[in-house]
Amino acid sequence: MHYCDYAPHDPLHAPYHDREHGFPARDEAVLFERLLLEINQAGLSWATVLRKRDTLRAAYAGFEVDRVAAFTDADRQRLMADPGVIRNARKVDAAIANARAVQGLRAGSGGFAAFLDAQHPRPKADWVKLLKRHFIHVGGEIAGEFLMSLGYLPGAHRPDCPVHARVLAADPPWRHARAGTFD
């Protein structure tokens, strides 16, 4: 079942489906949030992540990269004790390490959005390899959903979904890929 089949009628999923999923984003905190949400979703339902989204935002300092990158062991322990977040040591450690990786992208690539733009277009398998070189706890499913949620890969919405036309109007990066890129 495609996300467009059930999300528009679900009070939890509809706002994300209708206003965020597949739309391009440039803001570093938004990009980082999407990465962390996808990492936290691994092994869980997307509904679980959406229910905890506000708590995750508060626990991870509004997804501000510099603040998360500065987290200490005490912050890690706080997160591991917080029942409002997903208390998985690998996911908590990935959030902190990946915030530091995003900081590194600023110096080397001009920022997270510039890094993604400079890599586009490429096949999903190449994206996965690239993201694994820069981030931790990012496998094929996480990388694919992260990139699709931001419009770097197609498929966020079915062509007959009303949101699809709005995504196209927002000019997602995948529209500018050469033929055969997503094979």
TrEMBL record:
InterPro entries: Adenine_glyco (IPR005019), DNA-3mA_glycosylase (IPR052891), DNA_glycosylase (IPR011257). It comes from the Bacteria. Pfam families: Adenine_glyco. PANTHER family: DNA-3-METHYLADENINE GLYCOSYLASE 1, DNA-3-METHYLADENINE GLYCOSYLASE I. This is DNA-3-methyladenine glycosylase.
